[in-house]
Amino acid sequence: MATLLQDTKIGILPMKRTLLAFATSSLFFACVVPSQAQQVLDGIAAVVNEDVITFSQVRELIGPTEMAARQQLKGTDLDSKIKEIRLKAINDLVDRQLILQEFYKNKFNIPDHFIEDRVQTVIREEFGGDRAAFVRTLAAQGYTLDKFKLMEKEKMIVQAMRSQNVKGDVIIPESKILEYYQKHREDYAEDDQIKLRMIAIRKAENGSDSRRAMIEEIRSKIKEGAEFQDLARMYSEDSTQDQGGDWGWINRRTLNENLAKVAFSQKPGQVSEIVELGNSYYLLYIEAKKNSTVKPFAALHDEIQSKLIQEERQRRGDEWIGRLRKKAYIKMF
């Protein structure tokens, strides 16, 4: 959260009295505006009053997201998704630029030592105090120290300005919290769960039925009173062998559909029939079972209240950005 030095009569103080903002994140990635020559060569994505947003800034913002889309989609679906991603990025950068302009127009300031404190925090927490390693990492990612400092400064500005302009405490009436719970009860439902142990035996590579005979013998011993977990430690060939085949509490989505169908149809204390699936045989043992339940309102009250407060703050922030947009000259290309 940003920490603001405030006067009781005004919000953010003028430059002489300074704005103190120590915020390490914002809704927008702080991209550095290139030189005028670079802007011309790079291409203009948008103009915000007197400032230019370039295509390189857009690419820098959406790089990982666009790459993921290209791996998952093709054809017209991909084209539509890329357009959507780029449009959102341009709008985010426009909003960010409006916030920065508002900050400097009002002659606000963030002292340099706050930026240096942020740099030192990153070096200490992420690089074990090794400043040289930090600088090398920046260089490998195409950043200079000055560019990093500017990025961090602009993040602080955006966060501080948003916090300052979402005025007043947000109070959510109890009736609204209860109404939200009642409308979204299904979102807070806990699935059926079982406490599962499993033995998995791979089939013989030569096609013989010796492994089938082995798991049949294991099942017979369990039916005769042998402890499931002891036999799992001796014979199971999956990652839970050392834990006696213990999978803990799981829901249906944890297992293969065929295994889940068998497991959830059993009663606690039962060992399943042998399940043949792929190249393995399985035995399932259900230690306990929990039926689907909905968390009570009292247990969710604070979580829902926090969610609604955040949504209200977001709404107020969007209204503020909307007012900035109305009085600005914005052109997208």
Short description:
The chain is 52% helix and 14% strand. With 333 residues, the chain is an alpha+beta fold. A four-stranded antiparallel sheet has the order 5-4-7-6. The chain has a three-stranded antiparallel sheet with strand order 2-1-9.
Describe the structure.
The protein is an alpha+beta fold. Among the domains are: 36-165, Porin chaperone SurA, peptide-binding domain (Triger factor/SurA peptide-binding fold); 192-291, Roll (Chitinase A, domain 3). Helix content is 52%, strand content 14%. A hairpin with a 2-residue loop joins β6 and β7. α4 packs across α6. Mean pLDDT is 85; it is low at 1-41.
List the helices and strands and how they pair.
Blueprint (H helix, E strand, L loop, with lengths): L35 H7 L1 E5 L2 E4 H18 L2 H31 L6 H16 L3 H10 L4 H21 L8 H10 L5 E2 L2 E10 L7 H14 L4 H8 L10 E5 L6 H9 L9 E3 L2 E11 L2 E2 L2 H30 L3 E3 L1
Antiparallel strand pairs: 1-2, 1-9, 3-8, 4-5, 4-7, 6-7
Q: Which terms summarize this structure?
A:
333 residues, alpha+beta, Triger factor/SurA peptide-binding fold, Chitinase A, domain 3, four-stranded antiparallel β-sheet, three-stranded antiparallel β-sheet, 11 helices, 9 strands
- Give the averaged pLDDT, no decimals: 85
Reading off the top of the CATH hierarchy, the class of one domain is best stated as Mainly Alpha
Number of strands: 9
Query: Counting H and I runs of at least 4 residues, what is the number of helices?
Result: 11
Strand order of the largest sheet: 5-4-7-6
Q: Main β-sheet, in a few words? A: 4 strands, antiparallel
CATH topology of one domain: Triger factor/SurA peptide-binding fold
CATH homologous superfamily of one domain - what is it?
Porin chaperone SurA, peptide-binding domain
CATH architecture of one domain: Orthogonal Bundle
Q: Spans with pLDDT under 50 lasting ≥5 residues? A: 1-41
How much strand? 5-15%
Rg measurement, Å: 29 Å
Question: What is the overall silhouette?
Answer: elongated
The structural class is alpha+beta
The N- and C-terminal alpha carbons lie at a distance of 34 Å
Helical percentage: 40-55%
Topology as a string of helices (H) and strands (E): HEEHHHHHHEEHHEHEEEHE
